[in-house]
Amino acid sequence: MTDEAQAQVGGPPTALTAHSGAPLSGETTAPGDKSISHRSLILGALARGVTDIKGLLEGEDVRRTAAAMAAFGARVERLGPGRWRVDGAGGFSEPADVVDCGNAGTGVRLIMGAASGFPLTATFTGDGSLRGRPMGRVLKPLGLMGATWMGREGNRLPLSLRGGDLQAIRYVLPEPSAQVKSAVLLAGLNAWGETRIVEPVLTRDHTERMLRAFGAEVSVEDGPEGRLISLKGGQALKAVAVQVPGDPSSAAFPIVAALITPGSSVTVRGVLLNPLRCGLFDTLKEMGADLEITNERSAGGETVGDITARHSRLRGVTVPEDRAASMIDEYPILAVAAACASGPTVMRGLGELRIKESDRIALMAAGLTACGVQVEEEPEGMIVVGTADANHPVRGGAMATTHGDHRIAMSFLVLGLAARAPVSVDQPAMIATSFPGFTSLMASLGARIEAA
Fold it and tell me: What is the mean pLDDT of the chain?
C-alpha cells in the first residue's frame, strides 16, 4: 500500500510530510500520460474490434473512465500492470445505471461528448469536487448540436444527457480547452455533416492524433481565426494497439525536485514531448534550468524522450500568457520552482485554474505564503517572488491545505524536499487519482516523504 493511501487508513485523512536531506539521484519512468490514457479507453470503446493498450495510467481517474466504458457496452479487461484490452462494438449502448466518474473532469467531459452521438440517455455524477465543477463549457456546443440534458443549477453534476441525431456545427472555442474541443470532435463522429472547430489559441492535440490512428479522417489547417479542425460525421473507428507515453505533467514533479534540491541529478525516461505539452520545460529552461533531453524517438504517433534534470540556480521570469494552454496543469509545480528561484516569476492568463479540482491559484498562494514565500495573487494569475539561493532556501515549516487536489499536494511535497523545515500536506490519498505510487517513486530517488 502506498504512503498516500496509508495516510488515511483507519480514520479521517491525516498528512504526508516531506523533509529535506540528501541529493536526489537515479533514473525512473513517469506514469502513463493521463490525457492519452483517457482517450485510448474512450476511442477503444467507440471502435470496432480489440484495442490493446500498454502503459495505461492506472490512477483512479483513468480507472473511472475504464468502468464507464464498460457501462456503455465495451468489454474492458486488465491484463497486467499498465496492460489493458478494450473490445469495442463500434458505438455506445445505454448504461443500466448512473455513470460515476469520481474526480475525473477530463473523463466525464469527453465521455459526455462521445455519448451525445448516440440515441441514449445517460446520467453522470462524480465525487464532491467534480460535482462542484461547471460543465457549461462543454454542454453549450453539445446543445448546439442537438443534445439535451437536465441537471443541477449551474450545469453541475449529477445530470442526465440525451443524445442522438446530432447536427454538425462550426464552433469557435471561446477559451482554450482541449476538453471542449475533444468532446465536440467525439460528438461529431456521429453527427450529420462536417464538424468544424476553430482554435484561436492552440491546445493539446491528442484527440486529433488518436482519431487518425483509429482510422478517422481529420483535417487540420491554420487560418486567419486560428487553427481549423474538421471532421466528417459517420466515420467508423477501427481498433489499434496503443502505447501510452510517460506523462509530462507527472514527470514535472521529480524534474522540479531535482532542479531545486542541491547536488541532485535525476533522469525520467520515456516522457511525452508533444510540443503542445512542453510549456513547462520551455519555461524552466528560460529560468536557467539544466535540462537535457536525449534518446528522442517515436511512440504511437508521438515523440518521446528521456529528460535529465540537474540542480540549478533558477531565476524569475515572466511566463508568456499564450503558453498557458500548453502547461495549465503544471503551474502549481512551476510556482514551487519560482519560490526557489531568485526574483519574481509572473504567471498570468490562468483563470482556468480557479475551476480545476480546486482553486489552484488561491491554494498555491496560501500555501507558499505559509512557507515564507512572497506571493501576489491576481484574479487570473499570481506573482511569486523567489528569494532562495544556495544559502537561503525557502523556510517551509507549514501544513498546506490541498482541498483534496492531487497536484497541489504533490507540489508542496516537492517544496518540502528543498525547504529548511518540513512541509506537510493534508488529504494525501487524492494523489493516487493521477500519480499512483508517487511517494514510492520519489523515495527511490532518495526523497524522504513520510506519512503522519
Answer: 93
Determine if the peptide bond prior to 436 is cis (ω within 30°): no
Beta strand 194-199 with 170-172 is parallel
- Determine the Cα–Cα distance for residues 305 and 273; give it in Å rounded to an integer: 7
Q: Which residue has the cell 482556468?
A: 352
| 339 grid coordinates | 519560490
Distance CA 408, CA 396 (A): 15
Q: What angle do CA 197, 192, 222 make, to 5 degrees?
A: 20
- Taking the CB of residue 451, how many other CB atoms lie within 10 A of it? 17
Which region among 325-329, 336-340, 417-421 has the lowest average model confidence (pLDDT)? 325-329
* All three cell numbers of 421: 523545515
Where does residue 228 rank: exposed (0-12), middle (13-18), buried (19+ CB within 10 A)? middle
Catalytic residue among 3, 329, 405, 426: 329
pLDDT of residue 301: 73
- Rounded to the nearest 10 degrees, what angle do helices 406-416 and 360-370 cross at? 20
Is 329 among the catalytic positions?
yes
List, in order of start, the domains of the chain with CATH numbers. 3-32+246-451 (3.65.10.10), 34-242 (3.65.10.10)
Q: What is the enclosing helix (H) or strand (E) of 50? A: strand 48-54
